[in-house]
Amino acid sequence: MSSRISPDHHDLDQLTGIRSGKPSFYVEYLASAERLRRVIHALDRISRALVRTTEGPGTLVRAVAEAAADHLTAHWVVFALADGALPEAAPRHLVLGPVGDEVDADDPVVPPWVSAHLRGVRSGAGHRHGADAEPAPGHHAQDPHHLHVPVHLDGDVVGEIVAWTGAERAIDATDASVLRVLAGQTAAALQNSALHQRTMRLYGEASRHAEDLAARNEQLQRTRDALTVARQREVLDSERHRIARELHDSVTQYALSAGMQIEVVRSEMRDERQRERLETAKALTRRAVEQLRSAIYALHHSGDRGRQSLPAMLEELSTVHMPSDLRVEVRIEGRPVALPSAAERSLFRVAGEALFNAAVHAEAGVAVVRLAFRKDRLVLSVSDDGTGDPEHVRRALRVAAAGDLNGSHRGLVNMAERAREIGGTLRIRRSPQGGIRIEVGVPLPLPAGVSPSGAPDHSDPGSRS
Questions:
Q1: Which candidate among 63, 120, 175, 325 keeps its CA 20 to 30 Å from the CA of 413?
Q2: How, if at all, do strands 327-333 and 366-373 pair?
Q3: How far is CA 32 from CA 16, 29, 444, in A?
Q4: What distances in angstroms separate CA 221 from CA 208, 209, 216, 370, 448, one per listed residue?
Q5: What is the phi/psi pair of residue 150, to 5°?
Q6: What pLDDT, on the 0 to 100 scale, is given for residue 42?
Q7: pLDDT tens string 209-248
Q8: 333 in helix, strand or coil?
Q9: Could you give the angle at the alpha carbon of 414 between the alpha carbons of 411 and 420, nearest 5°?
């Protein structure tokens, strides 16, 4: 006995205020001290069991049953809830065997009186232990080796904690009080544990709903933005088409009529010098009509061209609105790759501007458009057989870029700016056909959102590789 109580002897002296150098002379004191020591240990075990609420009802139920078994040194312990009580609590019952292991209630090793008591508790009849209650099998009045205490919640009995001890361990009033304390706190802890688990589930569902709502809101915002862009594009395209119709139905017709009147007057003119001037006026009128048709075409095709590839756009450019006296060849080299729509439009505009410069200013008869897809670079070039001088064009571009007051070379500046905006460079050199070669080189792959970078190259092509 002395070896069992010696570890807590100092704590016990402090709690009771009693000192004795001869504990063997105080038998009653030792018995009281043993009971107090067991109570302290039991209350500590109970507190450690009940704080496991957040680990779930299953962990809490096992901790309660183990606390009861440890305090009583019980052979069998049953914790059970009545059917219908605490519906969210699980498990509904638990049986601990002689060595503290959990045993299935239907296992043959479970004594029949233990099984009968478990069934009685679950049916709601196990807590009737008054004078009119029928004793459960294996239970006798004042049995010092059997104890059952009800589990109360809000004044109702919702279950029981039942224990059986061996012949060497008698149950006294202190043990019953300890177990009542345990039972009194267990129901509330179980309810709190079930509520905690439910709260966590609801929180998880709310979090998932919030994430889903955020995703749907983002999708809705993207859809709204897309609709706004589509509406703006529709309005812009409508205005472009209106302007194109106006140019076609009025300005172009006026220019054609002026050309016809010039031809009529020229045919009646006998003065050769005046005839030459009228011929020049007729040619200028024809050029004006061609540029009007080019503007009309550009207005009709200024929006997003859908999934049409750049090679297809260039093929269409070469056949739809070029001057009738300019023969255009389109050559595609390498394996075409998909390009951002902004880059395709910029390259398309460069090609169109270069072709019209070849026809209108260089008086070219043949132009070759080459689109070369290389491993890490794309090169678009327009070569002609016209009368243009590369050095003169480079000089004009430098002057226009520095400040073109009359806007006569705005087209050259536009080509250089378009090349720079997609990360490329513009080069002007002598073409193999004898005229001018406009070349735009850009790195591959092109970024989805191109940003201004690089600078136009106006230097002599001979100085660069």
A1: 325
A2: parallel
A3: 10, 5, 91
A4: 20, 18, 8, 42, 21
A5: -75, 155
A6: 67
A7: 999 999 999 999 988 888 888 888 888 878 877 887 787 7
A8: strand
A9: 145
Instruction: List phi, psi (to 5°) of 406.
Output: -95, -5
CA distance readout (Å), 381 to 158, 271, 354, 372, 378: 90, 45, 9, 9, 10
d(CA 12, CA 40): 10
| Interior angle at CA 218, CA 217 and CA 219, nearest 5 | 90
Question: Residue type for 140, please?
Answer: H
Q: Residue 386 is encoded by which pair of tokens?
A: 């016209």
- Spatial separation of the C-alpha atoms in residues 82 and 65, rounded to whole Å: 16
* Chain position carrying tokens 């059970």: 80
The whole-angstrom separation of Cα 328 and Cα 340 is: 25
* Weakest mean pLDDT among 237-251, 322-336, 337-351: 237-251
Phi, psi of 394 (to 5 degrees): -65, -40
**Each residue of 115-165: pLDDT tens digit?**
888 888 888 775 444 333 333 433 444 688 888 888 887 778 888 888 999
Token digits of residue 393: 């064009």
Instruction: List Cβ neighbours of 240 (8 Å cut-off, separation of 6 or more).
Output: 299, 300, 302, 303
- The C-alpha torsion from 286 through 292 and 294 to 295, rounded to 10°, is 160
Q: What is the secondary structure of 100-147 as a DSSP string? A: S-B--TT-TTS-HHHHHHHHHHHHT-TT--STTSPPPTT--TT-TTEE
- Distance CA(269)–CA(274), nearest Å, equals 7
Q: Look up residue 203 and give its amino acid.
A: Y
CB 259 within 8 A of CB 284: no
160 within 8 A of 126, measured Cβ to Cβ: yes
**CA–CA distance from 358 to each of 37, 120, 214, 352, 439 (Å)?**
109, 105, 55, 10, 14
Do residues 446 and 342 make contact, with C-beta atoms less than 8 angstroms apart?
Answer: no
pTM: 0.41
Total Cβ atoms within 10 A of residue 53: 21
Please provide the size of the chain in residues: 465
The rounded distance, in Å, linking the Cα atoms of 461 and 136 is 109
pLDDT of residue 428: 94
* Contact assessment for residue 414 and residue 401, using Cβ atoms and an 8 Å cutoff: no
**For residue 313, what are the contacts with CB-CB under 8 A and spacing of at least 6?**
305, 344, 348
Helical spans, DSSP H, in 321-409:
341-360, 390-403
Tell which residue, 346, 352, 332, has the closest CA to residue 424.
346
CA angle centred on 167, ends 145 and 147, rounded to 5°: 10
